[in-house]
Specification:
The complex is a heterodimer of chains A (327) and B (252). Chain A is mostly helical. Chain A has 15 helices and no strands. In chain B, the strands form three sheets. A six-stranded mixed β-sheet of chain B has the order 5-6-7-3-8-9, with helices on both faces. Chain B has a three-stranded antiparallel β-sheet with strand order 2-1-4, covered by helices on one side. The chains are: A mainly alpha (327), B alpha/beta (252). Chain A: Belongs to the binding-protein-dependent transport system permease family. FecCD subfamily.
Chain lengths: 327, 252
Amino acid sequence: MIRVFAALAILCAALFIAALLVGPAQIGAIEGLRALILGGEGPAPLVMQEIRLPRALLAVMIGLSLGLSGAAMQGYLRNPLAEPGLIGVSGSAALGAVVAIHTGFSAAWAYGLPLSALAGALAGVALVIALAGPRGSSLTLILAGIAISAMAAALTSLVLNLSSNPFAANEIVFWMMGSLADRSMMHVGLALPLMVVGWAMLLPLGRGLDALTLGEDAAASMGVRLTRMRLVLVVGTACVVGAATAVAGAIGFVGLVVPHILRPLVGARPSRLLWASALGGAVMVLAADLAVRLILPERDLKLGVLTALVGAPLFLHLIYKTRRELP
Amino acid sequence: MTLLALDDLAVDLRGRAIFAGVSARIEAGEFVGLIGPNGAGKTTLMRAALGLVAARGHSSLLDHRAVDRARHAAWMPQARDIAWPVSVEALVALGRVPHLPTGRRLSAEDQAHVDAALAAMGLEGMRHRTATRLSGGEQARVLIARALAQDTPLLMADEPIAGLDPAHQIATMQVFAGLARDGRAVIASLHDLGLAARHCTRLLLLGEGGIVADGPPGDVLTPDNLARVFHVNAWFADTPHGPVFQPLEVIE
């Protein structure tokens, strides 16, 4: 078990350093790291501190958030097909962002787009909680999430549909693909506080999620307060996924695939999977963001496109493996 | 010592009265068989006692906070839910969750309870197998072991021996009777009246919207009660092998 965590942590650290060293500006490894830490004059410190560092930091933060919330959501719903977007947060965050782009709010103010996306996420999750009811089952949560996701997707399409400005429409489509290109420390500063709150809510859920392995009734009889747990899960997921979507757009498949891959390696225990999946998510997003810079550096391949392209076949493989194990 | 006191408990689900006016006291040392036909409310009665379903009246378990209640009473639901492919040992160790502060690992004492529970259900050889790949009866034994590992004064189990082979049914009933002899109490809903008659110290017969009979097996399994509540007649005798009960025919 320790070995799994150690391997993931080492991989994460190695990819983080690699993410700092890869980019269109030709900066040597030693020179780059020195410029990053010591600063100084010239283009190298600027590139390292203002472009590559925020990008690498965001990859770690977003990966951590998606992996962690995916593992928590699967653990709570006791379903390996669950993913953090299920409760409609990413859909409603995207709607908020799209409205900001369409109205020009995002062009007028640097914080306009991420804040508008966050407002969308909060509104969406408040609606989901109101719809699902305070004491409802996990089923009502899923249904409410599906309804809100569908609503947000429809409204997003409506905005695109009515957009008279082809450039805005273009920008909306590209934004929705999800990317970490051209992000700054402002985005890190905006997302980090919310994500820290979300991590602090989700990580302690492990014990309750373990108990839920035995079903809701048994967990409740073991002292797990399910109503409170569900609220913490939904609000925590909204914080991390809302913040991630607000700064990077929709990055799919990470929250779905990473817990799935790591589950056998941690003995399927939901509490251990939370930590492993957080690290694994960071590894996956770091690796994917490196890949978009290495594969087609001049074409600005979108991160969300790549995670889906890699994630979907991986998922198919997992389904195939599961199918063979079933009678 | 009274481990569970129910006073005038009543449950309505969707406007339909399941049962009403249920009062009972379960003392340390008792192995109570909760019997009754399908739909009599056996499961609902136990869930109401645990506060898992809204009820009128009073259950002494609800005087505790949820966390303390989990150290007083263990509950094995009828649904054999095992969501993830965890090892048998890890599953049984979940019974220790109420005793562990958040994030703490199993202590030697916790491990001893887990080992004892595995031994009691004859699962030592399966310790490292994946729980979801076991047969239904084996899974039931693992889940009973999980409840045993919780090490509570009161154990409540919903049809714990359904789906077990005869040897394991008898062994499980003996484990429960042994817990009662050690000064704990067990309440188990049962459909096998023969096993109930042999092993339980007391039977609670649920039917007709309340408790029909309450007492030692011989006083509860009377021809009159069986005809009224179960619509069967039966052969029941004290033999050199102990009490033997066998249902015979349905009474039209």
